[in-house]
Each structure stands twice: as C-alpha cells, then as structure tokens.
Amino acid sequence: MTEFRTIVDQPYAYLQKLKNQNGKKTVGYVCSYTPEEVILAAGAHPARFFGTKQQIHLADSHLQSYSCSVVRGVLEEGLSGRIGFLDGMIFPHTCDSIQRLSDIWRMNIPFGFHLDLVLPVKLNTPSARDYMADVLKKFRTDLGRALQADITDDALRKAIKTMNAIRQSILEIYELRSRNPRLMSGADLYTLVRAAMIMDRERLAEMLAETVLEMKAKAAGVEEDGSLKRIVLAGGICNHPDIYPMIEDAGGAVVWDDFCTGARYFAEPVSEEGDPVAGIAGRLLRRVICPAKHAGLDRRAKHIIRLAQEHNARGVIFLLFKFCDPHAFDYPDIKKSMDAAGIPVLLLEIEDPLPGEGQLRTRFEAFLEMV
C-alpha cells in the first residue's frame, strides 16, 4: 500500500514525475463518466481531480461560497497554477456545477486545451445508445486533434483491455472485503481506489492483480468476524478517508459503497467484441447512474437497496456534499424506498473540511447502536 499512499498524498508530484519519465501528455477530468479508454488510446495519461486541500480564495471571484466545494476546489487548483502541468481538461455534461466550471475554466485557465463531452442525460431511450456513440465518436476526433494523435481502433481495444483488467481487480478486492472486512481497512481501500484514478494504468493493473492474490492468500487464514456491523456508504464523491476508521472504531465495517470515486468507477466492463466506441458507449449506458443522469425514477434506489441486501448490510450512511443539488433532490425518494425496505439510513451533510471529529464519531456510534 505504500506506493498507493504516496501517490494519493502527493498526486501532483507523482503526475509531474510520470510525465517527465514517459513523456506522455496529462489530461485531467472531474467525473467518472469520462471515457478513460479514449485518453489512453491517444497515448495520454488520464488523471482525475477531486477538489483541493488548500484554502479556497481565488475561486471565490468566480463561484459563490454556496457552490459545491469540489467544483470550487478544482477551480482553485487551476487558477493557482498548481496543476499547470496539465495538457488539457475534459468536462463531461453532468451536473450544473460541473457545466458552469467548464465555462469558467475555458475563459480563465491559460494552460492546456478544453473539451466538453456532452453526454445524453436520459439513458433509457432507444435513441440514447446512438446518441452516446455519436458523442463519443466526436470526442475521439476532438481529443485526437487536441493531442495531435491518431486514435486507432487497435489502440482503443488495448486500452479497453487494460481498463477492464483494472475494473475486474478492484471488483474482486471489494468482494473479498465484503466477505471479510478485516482483510483490508476502509482507509486503505479508499486510498487504493483514489490512486487508481491518478496513477499509470499499466502499472496500476499489475499492482492490483498482485493485491488480489495477496488478499486471497490472506483470506485463507483469516476467520470472518460476525460481530461487525456491516454498512454501505452512498453519495457522490468521498474525499474523507477519516470517515472509515471512525466507523470501524464504533464497531462497524464499510462493506460496499455507491460513490463515483468508489464502486461506480469500476462498475460494468466494456465489451471487447465489435466496435470499441460502441462498447464504451454501452458501458456508460449500463453502469449505475448518478443523480445527474436519468434511467427510471427508482433505478438508483433499487440499486442501493440491492447493495445493502446482497452484502448483508445493517444500514446505509449517505454522505451528502453541502450544496450538491442533484444528490439533495435525489435523497428524499431514496429514503422513502429505504424505509419501505426496512433498511436504516443515516444522512450526513459534509463539506471540505469535515465537521469536528467528535461530532461525527457521536453520530456514527449512535447509528451503529441503533442498527
């Protein structure tokens, strides 16, 4: 885990070093709907950004203080020049905040190219597949032009295999932890998945395969602990690894999640048969939706209920980023469905930085006592 931790602790130093070593251009993105396969096939390195660890002040000139802290944080990193090593930035058409971030970025950031990826919002219509494929074809052309690269079908197929291997390994790690959470701490799992969105993907695929083998060997000698209170986390982005040990100290164990920086990132493989762009489009249509997309009124609620039931969770903790309208609008209907299914729910409104540790510990302890 040491290499994963170093990358997560010092992502910019890692990305700059990687760029110096392999000469590849670095392309940033802010949403898991970004098709990393296309970036890899262009010979570039994809890197996700999650906000900032610094005090936000430059972004306040462009975004109100009641805007999403993740969006404000990403803009702060751009305006400060701390991510000036980027060769370009990609903005998928998701929530309103990211769309406005895209506009502000285009007009105010002097380095790198800027690309919008206008994906369909409604994903369960007959025309959605064709529209998704057409958007990705345009993105392939636009990205190739921006990077001065020829994105071939063979390069796309190779990138798809790499990303599928990564997704499969992370899925196996999640499944092993679900069966026995003591095989890996929640904070280490958070670090591993966060690093997966930053580091060299070829190296990542190798390290994850090794981690799976190590965990399987470890699992053979570790008995399952039935005393742990199994919990599913849900929400958008989780930027707070400290939440996991707080839950574990209170006698709980996070056995799965529904985060775009977690399980939604590796959900669904891309078909390795046929047209590679159609395969990528198919994955984006099939994967678990976030509130910025639509595929039926109760699809996400049913998914979270299914996660809780399949992993024998006693309850679900929702981490709601302050001022995140899509998740805030989504939550009441999900809560209603959870209540009907008899699954206890705790809603935590969070922001960068987190509220006081004592306050959070008290709420986690009270919820775990209840379940």
How many whole angstroms does the radius of gyration measure?
20 Å
The largest sheet, given as strand count, sense and whether it forms a barrel, is: 4 strands, parallel
Q: Could you estimate the helical fraction of the residues in percent? A: 40-55%
**Total count of strands:** 8
**Uncertain stretches:** none
Please give a structural write-up:
With 371 residues, the protein is of the alpha/beta class. The protein has a domain of 140 residues: Rossmann fold (3-Layer(aba) Sandwich), CATH 3.40.50.11890. The strands form two sheets. It has a four-stranded parallel sheet, sandwiched between helices. Helix 5 links the parallel strand 3 and strand 4.
List the defining traits of the structure above.
Rossmann fold, alpha/beta, 371 residues, four-stranded parallel beta sheet, 12% strand
Would you kindly provide a brief summary of this structure?
It contains 15 helices and 8 strands. With 371 residues, it is an alpha/beta fold. It is globular and about 55 Å long.
Topology at a glance:
Elements: H1 2-9, H2 11-22, E1 26-29, H3 36-41, E2 45-48, H4 69-80, E3 88-92, H5 96-108, E4 113-117, H6 126-147, H7 153-179, H8 186-196, H9 201-219, E5 229-235, H10 243-249, E6 252-258, H11 263-266, H12 276-286, H13 299-310, E7 315-321, H14 325-341, E8 345-350, H15 357-370
Parallel strand pairs: 1-2, 1-3, 3-4, 5-6, 5-7, 7-8
